[in-house]
Amino acid sequence: MTKLRFLFPIILVALAGCGSPENAENTQLETIFFSYEIDTVYIDAKDEFLFLNMGLFFSDYSAKDGALYNLNSQSGRVEIIDLKNKTLERLVQYDLDGPNSIIEMALTGIKKADNGSLFFMNYMLMNQLDSMATKIASYRLSNEFLKGDDLKANEEIDGMGQIANDGSYFASVYGVYQTGGTYTGLAKVTFADSSLQLIPLDFWADMDKYNIKMDVGDGRAFSSPEYKFLTLDGNNLILSTTAKNELWYYEAAMDSTFHKEYSSAFTQNEKVVNYPKTANSQESFDQANKQKNDQVVFGPLVKDENLGRFYRYSREGDDSENNYAYVLTIFDEKLNQLHEEKMRDEVTIPGHYFAAKTFVHQGMLYTFLNIGDELAFIRLKPNFHDE
Asked: DSSP labels for 186-245?
């Protein structure tokens, strides 16, 4: 496997709202005239109390269905949200016992595949059900179940990964992180033959420097690390973090990893460790975290499955009324940075640290918003005036 590294500087033109990307792969400048519309849409829950406790963490958006599948991890109920009509379409209760049980110890996510299958993720196990809610397969993330590459002693696959839209594979990170080590790279499990491919990748080497720790006694400690994000692009994998304006792209056909760095006109490109890294009280821990969290935070990449573009929200503390500057970055299908847009001062993108659950539906970005325990979304419509 080869590794390549690129730097993508952004050249700004004089017109507000226009950007000209230049990169190592394509030196031809392209001007994009961009604007956006933003509003809030509400979902009619039909007198049902939807499961919003975890901020839609256990949900999956299906571009094929135009629907959001929201899993209640406590009851096994799935709420199917029709986004076209902005309404709760139906509720489906899945079995927690018996031959079609979806749970082992605790549910961690759901995936609605384009072939009609539903995958229910338990941290180290995935159950696949057909359209009739019959269990047709289970996949366990261990050497005993998987073929191909072997995990070393103490290595394990992080069960909080992603399943491809076509339902063909699962991907996540792996390493010895549970025993004080670190992430070693990417793991890809192909369902057809239960084969495991390990992709070594040094993407987490210096992430510890951003941690803030608090010792609470009895050998216990709290930590506030940075976050990692995995985005699937067909058979290819994209890794990024909250701390740096960069990503790693694994291209399956070439069995190669590309490291891409970007430059922002509106935010820092990396966090600066100018805050205390240790705390001896909850108050000092919270204060240090606020110092860190007011620095730049890069959210996950989300893909427009129809157009192939990628979007990312980021934010950085400022002196505006809502205390943060929010930035939308747009990438093309090859992850070249096309445009950056600083949101108007009155715009707030929901999310405690990074953007809340975000996906692209019919070309528009939907970001989860909880309004008095009612389901809503901040909706941003991008307008590309050269199209």
From this structure: EEEEETTTTEEEEEE---STTGGGG--EEEEETTEEEE----EEEEEETTEEEEEESSBS
